Amino acid sequence: MIHCHRVTKSYPMGNGRKEVLKGLDLQVLPGEHIGFLGRNGAGKTTLIKLIGGVEMPTSGKIRRGMSVSWPLGFGGGFQGSLTGYDNARFIARIYGHKYGEIRDFVEDFTELGPQLKMPVKTYSSGMRARLGFALSLAIEFDCYLIDEIIMVGDANFHRKCHIELFDKRGDRALIFASHSPELVREFCNRALVLHEGQGTLYSDVNEALEVYSAL
Amino acid sequence: MSSFVAGWRIQRRVISALMVRELVTRFGRENIGFLWIMAEPLLFAGLVGIVWRIMKGPEEHGVSIVAFIASGYIPLTLFRHAVSRSTRVFSVNGSLLYHRQIKILDFIFVRFIIEVIGAMMAFVFIGSLLYLINEFPVPADIGALIAGWFFYCLFTFSLCLVLAPISELSDVLEKFLPVTLYIMIPFSGTFNMVSWLTPDLQRIMLYSPFVSPMELMRYGIFGDRVQAIWDLSVTVGSSIVLLLIGLVLCRRVRRVLVVE
């Protein structure tokens, strides 16, 4: 279980501070699929970073009772100057996995072929998404943090994600930030609407999407 | 206990992975690869040694001038590199913080260790080379040499631990760092022994945390052919204070660090 207790996060802005999250509470149970909805700048990415431990909350506590993936998003997690294979090797090392297994899975899942020998900075965002997903699926987490990135993939990638995340790993939790109503409807069984630093959790995704579109 | 063992295992995994990554990103896999880490200290020590040899003759105060300069310049390059590489180390490595088992202290430690390994390799290499042409003695007291290195490294690391977080909080540090590194050279013990100075100057020099370890290293190499004076209390004391401040600052900075 992931437990966020009265989490606030603020960043310096000019002479004052911008408060992105103002005392947010959230619980994520094993196997739960939660969509994060909110306008640009509402704090979706910030909350995902806090849950992933990339940044620290200004106040409040986040407890992780299960293993949580690193946030899969447009930035971070990779070393751009290293090749796809080198990144895979690095991730295998720090998570204590056998590189051979990870490599096989990555080759199979990403279908990037010889491009894996090129530096990650030359990848398109779709290719990065494939690599990021492949690596985090190969490591196996109890909870996956996904920030938008599924959207940049093509139909084939989309299908693969569905098979790997839902058919093979249906028991895992998922946190998914997105602006796409279709994807949230497809992937999530609950949704959190972020607005003005507060989060409201809806167990009906359609209701959450209605509230979100009215913002 | 078992959690300690598990933590230790993760720590070792992370440190070795980070070291490989750092070496590959910095030096690539072309030609001699990571052996480049000893290229610069080697060139510095060698060329400066040769220039001094031409300017001042073969010996000074009874020891080979090339050996003296080489043995001083390599620790100095270690210090200068370690310090300049520890600035902004958190922001440039920001993308690694996506993996929770990697801590910001690992960044500082890894970069420092790589510099140490480079300096050590260069030191052994140039020492052996000079030994073959009779310009470098067999170390008289290997224990003193290693102890000197240890305390030199200890202070350097402690300073890096403070400078790294400060460089994230303020841009001013980076502006002043190059000139400070230059000004400190006379107080680093690189080019002279304390005993060559007047008593007043000797007192002042021993307040520099670099001087005692450097004297110890010189004694380890040349033995009784030089008169070495050291008092490690300044080095150890200032290192402990810096380590404590550094740990507190790192913790602070991690809380407010914005990761892209």
CATH architecture descriptor of chain A: 3-Layer(aba) Sandwich
How would you describe the oligomerization state of the chains in this entry?
A: heterodimer
Structural class by sheet pairing and helices of chain B: mainly alpha
Global geometry of chain B: globular
Residue fraction in strands of chain B: under 5%
| Terminal CA distance of chain B | 36 Å
Instruction: Show unreliable segments of chain A.
Output: none
The biggest beta sheet of chain B reads: 2 strands, antiparallel
Total DSSP helices of chain B: 10
Helix fraction bin of chain B: over 70%
Given the C-alpha coordinates, what overall shape of chain A results? globular
**Overall average pLDDT of chain A:** 92
- Terminal Cα separation of chain A, in Å? 30 Å
User: Mind telling me the C-alpha Rg of chain B?
Assistant: 19 Å
CATH superfamily membership of chain A: P-loop containing nucleotide triphosphate hydrolases
- Enumerate the spans of chain B where pLDDT stays under 50 for 5 or more consecutive residues: none
Note the main attributes of this structure.
heterodimer, A: 215 residues, alpha/beta, Rossmann fold, 5-stranded mixed beta sheet, 3-stranded antiparallel beta sheet, 36% helix, B: 260 residues, mainly alpha, two-stranded antiparallel sheet, 2% strand, globular
